[in-house]
Amino acid sequence: MTDTRQESLASLLGGRGGAVDASLPPLAFVLGWLLSGNSIAVGAASAVACGVVVGVVRVVRGGRPRALLVSVALVVLAAYVAIQTGRAEDFFLVQILLNAASALVWAASIVVRWPLLGVVVGLVTGQKFAWRRDPDLMRVYRIASWPWVGQYVLRVVVFGALWLAGEVVLLGIMRAALTWPLQVACIAVSWWIVRRTLPADHPGLRHPRV
Asked: Is 116 within a domain?
């Protein structure tokens, strides 16, 4: 096994910083909501302001503007939903729906033999879709994609239960706890599966045998 496999899988996270940054606006919403006496407007403004600041900092540090604009837009959408419904817990509704959709898409990709783990690693390593002609890599990516389905399902279950209970503070805490720590655990499990499943004589993720 070569280090390029671990390197490729680690690249899927886009750096731990991006995942950490994603948890900051929800925490800002909860903090603003609490300090203002449960004002959704203040919480929403805090979240959007935090999202904008994080986005600007990431762009200055070399982040992709398009990806950061999408992140800020999602924060704005979440704030808009909470303001419209008048329920602070609804700030997290967009995140719940996105995780549910992600779980379905990842599961479907495995079934149709286009596992998203392979798609992402192929794009990251520059091999594009050559891995689909390698039966060993196809099998590896299909198996190693299931932990990603699992992480999205876990978030839906946890966030959904807290949302139904109206636990705004716990939603903010668990949003942070199940962001980058869960992604790190997920990628570690995927990497373990890759090492256990790929034949010992295979040249590695960057070198499909076609």
From this structure: yes
